[in-house]
Amino acid sequence: MKSSIAPFHQRESADVLIVPVWEGVSLGKTPGLERAARALAATGDFKGKLGETYFLYPEDAVEPRWLLVGLGKEEKVTAESLRRSYAAAAREVQGKQGKTANVLPARTKKLSHEEAFKASAEGLLLTNYAFTRLKADSVKENPSVLLEKIVFLDAKASDEALLSKLETIASGVHFVRDLVNSNADDKTAPVLAKMAKEFEREHPRIQTTILDKKKLEQEKMGLLLAVNRGSSHEPCLIISSYKGDPESKEHVVLVGKGMSYDTGGLNLKVGDGMLTMKCDMSGAATVLGTVKTAAALDLKVNVTAVAPIAENCIDAHSYKPGDVYHSHSGKTVEITNTDAEGRLILADAMSYAVEHLHPSCMIDVASLTGAIVIALGEEIAGLFAADDVLSKELMSASSAVGELLWAMPVHDDYRESMKSEIADLINSGSRDGSSIKAALFLQEFVKDVPWAHIDFAGTCYLSKPKHYYTTKASGFGVRLLIEFLEQKAGRTS
Ligand code: BES
Ligand code: MN
Ligand code: ZN
Fold it and tell me: Which residues is 206 bridged to in the sheet?
């Protein structure tokens, strides 16, 4: 996909012209739409409500069709409402097999020009995604419906650079979506390790180190090894570093849960509980996608993705409830539920990062608990941060990009319930407050590093497409973390 900017009067033909319309504002002022405006006002067929769309077929226009897209009431506009309006436009164009679009900007005094341009472009770019790799016949009959060219009309010269940045970020989001949508068998530890190693060829400042099973044993990463015991693939720890600011000592470490599949282990998941569990490596995909994108943007930051990859399966070697395993940190863990495996592999990865990578701050991202889905649903992820500065920075990044976080309590009193009679910790307490208890478990392994935990079990993989999320895998987290890193880069440079 290629996008660019052009003046309205010099535009080339395209399959469609996207025309944004505020609710309650007459179309009459838009040149060429006077007659349509009268007809629409008389029939009430299009009112400009948020996400409403309507095709017109004007005579003698550069484009064969114009798509009116409702922006809702101007006084209520937000970056997110614009993203959603332009997402609706993209879906309609795709529905007509449109490959090229000319796009008019949403003009409003409620947002800065840059905010409005950015949100509109994001809405289109994020919606321009499909996962068709696993389709065979139907794709041949019904070929790709993605836009190949988008031209933004009447933009500013400075929008050109912004647009290229937004395209890079959208590719990062699509990279994560592709990984998460893939079959579990196609993203095992060896496969992901090889993929992350390839990052080195994409950017001279990326270095990827893989700890294979033998190294994991030398490093005594007993929890990561335990979780993977029932799998026929070897586990690994991926460490992918981008050094965009070599002079600085600041080092952001992002740790992502990489469970290529989670059956629950011997505490096997029941009913439909397993159905979505190829999504359980979303955290790893997100942190790897973030490092890849940060490098592609040449951000002036040092950031490392640490991704423990394992598969939680059943066989005679599976790790067992009631047994005690040694973590990398030295703390021992009594397994009370093999389905609480994410915190185990994260614990080893984080304690390794704390010991070897000198993080100035550490953020882990994980599809960790079903309880966070119950609490916050599919649009909001839980933020657990004991560090106020980090928490504020993440909240600010969150509101800038519209990937929502809700601050959850890291309530110290519940720590008691994670103690074991025979080991230092149990891995799973009672169901009440279980997202908080998972966070408290992780905190045992971060020492004094400023740390935040994002539980995005609800937002990483959606039950159905929505707004600019066109498939189950949302890619949630990449835009958030890139914004967080950009804000950091902005402060230091
Ligand atoms: N991968 C799951 C969490 C999950 C649930 C992710 C729904 C995405 C959607 C995790 O490993 C898990 O099984 N958590 C258990 C923990 C429990 C045993 C303490 C859960 O939430 O039920
Ligand atoms: Mn599990
Ligand atoms: Zn899991």
Answer: 242
Q: Residue 26: is its pLDDT beyond 90? A: no
For ligand 1, atom 13, the nearest C-alpha belongs to 339
pLDDT in tens, 441-471: 999 999 999 999 999 999 999 999 999 999 9
Contact between residue 303 and residue 242 where contact means Cβ atoms under 8 Å apart: yes
Answer yes or no: is the C-beta of 340 below 6 A from any ligand 1 atom. yes
Which two structure tokens, joined as six digits, stand for 364? 């882990």
Predicted structure pTM score: 0.97
Expressed in angstroms and rounded, the spacing between residue 385 Cα and the centre of ligand 3 is: 21
Ligand 1 pocket, 337 CB below 6 A?
yes
Query: Which sign, positive or negative, has the C-alpha torsion 354, 359, 360, 361?
Result: negative
pLDDT of res. 141: 64
CA–centroid distance, 363 to ligand 1, in Å, is: 19
> 279-298: per-residue pLDDT in tens?
999 999 999 999 999 999 99
Residues 69-91: what's their mean pLDDT? Answer: 98
- Show which residues are catalytic: 269, 343
Please tell me if the CB atom of residue 339 comes closer than 6 angstroms to any atom of ligand 1.
Answer: yes
Q: Starting from the CA of residue 428, give the closest ligand.
A: 1
Q: Which domains does the chain carry?
A: 2-156 (3.40.220.10), 171-492 (3.40.630.10)
Tell me the C-alpha to C-alpha distance, in Å, between residue 124 and each of 84, 86, 142, 488.
9, 6, 21, 27
Q: Is the CB of 434 under 6 A from ligand 1?
A: yes
